[in-house]
Each structure stands twice: as C-alpha cells, then as structure tokens.
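Entry for the shared binder. Reason: the reviewer on the internal report wants the predicted structure included alongside the sequence.
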Amino acid sequence: MPVRQIPDKDHVLRHVPWTKLRKDEDDNVLGILAAALQRRPQEKSLSVTWIEYFAGSAKDQIESAIKATRLAQDCRPKSHFAIANVGSIKSVATASGAHIRIVHESTDDNPAHASIRQLPDEDAALLQLLADEIFTQLVPNASIQKS
C-alpha cells in the first residue's frame, strides 16, 4: 500500500504507558510527559494510529483506533491514549523549525498505523510543547471494552 499524507483536519492517537503519564501526588492523570513522544533508539519515526481511517462517529473511530493499536502492541490497563490533531502537530513542529510529515503506513497488525517522520528527539522544548498543548485529549485504556 502506498504511503500517503494524513489530512491536517484528521487526528492521530499515541499509546502512552503509565510510566510516561504526568500525574499528581494522588496518581490522577494530568497529561503526558514529553518522554511519551520520544522514539526508541531503533525507531525511525514515531508510531501513532490514524483515527479517521475508521468509519462511524468520532467515538466509534476512537474506539476502533484504540482496538487496532492494542492488536499491534502491549497496552496495559493503566495506560492511556493521547489524541492530537494532525494540523496542530505540524504547525507547532514547523514553528520550532522541524519539517515533519505524518503519513499512513498500514501494518499487518494495524491497518490504521501512521508515522510521524522527522520529529527531532533532541528538541526537548518541542516535545514538551507537543505533550503539554497538542496531545491533550486522553482516553484511559481501561475505559474501552476489549474486542
């Protein structure tokens, strides 16, 4: 399947393990840490799931995207999913001097898999800004029924 850009109006979600969630002293989740947006050393891009790839209402699309992500990776019950608008991600990155691309790259496990390419891991301020202001909608993994 050819790689194609995801429209700016669409959204992606990122699985965030419990250890990369920003929490208060009572373990109430407040947001995500910038570390949730860093690639592992062997990764060339940041993996996300394209929400609008799926049909249905916005709620149905989010649930389908979460279920697809779960099939592709281990998602523990206390983890969350952070949602962001594609255009907002690109706008903030561009303002920081990064020229990223967000593309659909279907995998066998996740047909809605997408990648954020050329996101600079060394730009701590950009990752913090994305974590604090762009990836702000959170969905607890435990709130979505198992397939």
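Summary line for the report: The radius of gyration is 14 Å.
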